[in-house]
């Protein structure tokens, strides 16, 4: 079998609805590596938000911040931070609308407000607590992604920023990344380093920030718990994460002997 690279989203794909890694997923990743395949993570999370997952699975290559920060075997190979002047313009607009922001850097995140129920609920869904406040954090650190906290549809007022892209991941939160950015763009950078063709790329995901990745991969796999549109884009639909979906999908695609 030719060498393949398999990318996994985290929430709803690697992690089940209890934010745990199923034993079958751990087994599947171990077997993939034993058979000589490359295994990587592709997520909207910041690197510091899934270090424990990388360590638990023994994975040291990843696409983070929805493609804006890419690491291959522990080495950073691509960075695409937001433009500081754009953030300077966005901040007062968000303040006026009453929408908190969280700036996400390479090693930590900082908030524009001390407490807000949208921040608390959104981050708790990932197993994190609200960060400290530093509205000037973006001036001295590269920011790869911003979290905007607002109700569904309220992000439309920011679409005047044509150099930004908005991806909703929670009822109360939206990822902001550079326009044109996506997990697919990050994957391109990683497979260039591996010298592996697009046809040998497999990607597993479940949410809206996986659309480009699933479409780009040689074989895009939607989890059984994926949103309907992703299932339409996928080449294969596996079982839900809570029903050993990763292991089942890999076996059905003949990636595991």
UniProtKB/TrEMBL annotation:
The keyword Hydrolase applies. The keyword Hydrolase applies. It comes from Metabacillus fastidiosus. This is Cof-type HAD-IIB family hydrolase. GO terms for molecular function: hydrolase activity. InterPro entries: Cof, HAD-like_sf, HAD-SF_hydro_IIB, HAD_sf. It comes from the Bacteria. Keywords: Hydrolase.
